[in-house]
Design a protein that fits this description.
single chain; 104 residues; alpha+beta; Alpha-Beta Plaits; four-stranded antiparallel sheet; 3 helices; 39% helix; globular; NIPSNAP; NIPSNAP family containing protein
Length: 104
């Protein structure tokens, strides 16, 4: 399993647009076989930082999702929303793996 951690720097004046972008991607990742763990929006502390976590069974499944998303109309509409509204200033992507622990 691989989990993707995204850290977004967002435009706080365009939070509603970012929320719509996030709602779309939760559904899209799940439709493409991943498990979306959610978006985490600013509350206390930094007002312009948001996070997302989602997992795929492995790197190959994630790469297939990335390839497929480039031609999917709903994915392209989500990318366009972010570009047109400029709700995302920048983002960072990290790949994480869960710690395997032995059973009882």
């Amino acid at each position: 399993m691989i989990t993707i951690h995204l850290k977004y720097e967002i435009d706080v004046d365009k939070l509603e647009a970012f929320e719509e972008y996030a709602r779309r991607w939760v559904k899209l990742v799940n439709r493409f076989g991943g498990t979306h763990h959610g978006y985490f929006l600013p509350s206390e502390g930094d007002s312009d930082i948001a996070y997302a976590l989602f997992s795929f069974s492995g790197l190959a499944a994630y790469e297939q999702y990335r390839t497929d998303s480039m031609t999917d109309p709903q994915c392209q509409a989500a990318f366009d929303l972010a570009r047109e509204t400029r709700c995302i200033k920048r983002y960072e992507r990290r790949f994480l793996r869960p710690l395997e622990t032995p059973g009882p």
